[in-house]
Amino acid sequence: VSRKDFQAVSPMSGYEDLPGWSAFYESQLSVEEAETLYPRRVTAVHRESLECLTADGTIRLPITTALAEHGVTVGDWVLTERESVEVARVLERKTLLKRGKARRTGRGDGGDEENVQLIAANIDTLFIMSSCNADFSIARLERYVALARQAGVEPVVLLTKEDIACGDPATYINEAAELQDVQVSTIDATSPEAAERLAPWCRPGQTIALVGSSGVGKSTLANTLTGLNITTRAIREVDAKGVHTTTSRSMHPMSGGGWLIDSPGIRSVGLVESGKEEAVDEVFEDITDLATRCKFSNCRHENEPGCAVKVAVSADRLQRWRALQQKNGMTTPKSHKARDAKKDAKISKHLRTKGDRKSKHK
């Protein structure tokens, strides 16, 4: 029996309209699964249950021990039988935004076990929000961009509340412009113009996630993009923070047809082990490229003669690069040969991603 033969009567019928459902997920189903199982998209995760969207509305599914051990997060696709509340399996993710937390000592072998927190799955774009005031931190933005690069998600930086900035907003814009291959935009999160400006990322089939420190306007922007009405109190002048703070992640439909995941403020942004070096290299692409021109293959870019990095990169940026490496346990310089190999791989990946973005925004 071919897939074409059973599509008309299978549970998949009508599910092409669910937010983000695509051939990527449908292709993972066996013939038997496509005939008997139904896809549900996770819109919220609670302590003991999931809220999921179906073709007929929303349902709650219990988080079993097996599901908890596997890990599930907002944006995931899960499969169940029509009348069952037990998740048969979680589909492979197209993208996964996650962060490494403080390590804990593993039991039995005396080793360390990485503690990973899942943030959101199957998203296309990460909106990274920062206020144009004393809370602004280019180092924090670089950490969020690294998080997006590691997940294979497009980062877009949004600078908010420029109307109450501490000084000239252009100062923050110019500093954010140091980010490599990242679009930066200033917005008034309360204005309908914000939705118009962000429309290319919020079209039907697209899923975005909002991240940033508490109080930068994530929920205000979520209201603007979705039409929700989450009350925020007057802004305090000292730190420009509203009273509303999101405490859990949830997914909501946007007016433009896409879906949005609003998340709590993340206090610490750490990268998971797999792919962390490549992610940092992408954020500091200028340093990675210049390092191949250093006189010594093991140059640490400190006081070595013939260091191309020290000559061309500002001390502040170089310090932020070192700090991000050290925070994520990356302290050993790579040889020119190793850097060149990773650079070639990075260029290929960049060209593929760039092509995908052009197709998406047409």
UniProtKB/TrEMBL annotation:
CDD domains: YjeQ_EngC (cd01854). InterPro entries: P-loop_NTPase, Ribosome_biogen_GTPase_RsgA, RsgA_GTPase_dom. NCBIfam families: ribosome small subunit-dependent GTPase A (TIGR00157). HAMAP family: GTPase_RsgA. The keyword Lyase does not apply. SUPFAM superfamilies: P-loop containing nucleoside triphosphate hydrolases. The keyword Magnesium does not apply. GO terms for biological process: ribosome biogenesis. Keywords: Ribosome biogenesis. Residues 325-362 are annotated as: Disordered. This is EngC GTPase domain-containing protein. Residues 348-362 have a biased composition (Basic residues). The lineage of its organism: Eukaryota, Sar, Stramenopiles, Ochrophyta, Dictyochophyceae. Residues 121-267 form the EngC GTPase domain. Gene3D superfamilies: P-loop containing nucleotide triphosphate hydrolases (3.40.50.300), Probable gtpase engc, domain 3 (1.10.40.50). GO terms for molecular function: GTP binding; GTPase activity. PANTHER family: SMALL RIBOSOMAL SUBUNIT BIOGENESIS GTPASE RSGA. It holds the Pfam family RsgA_GTPase.
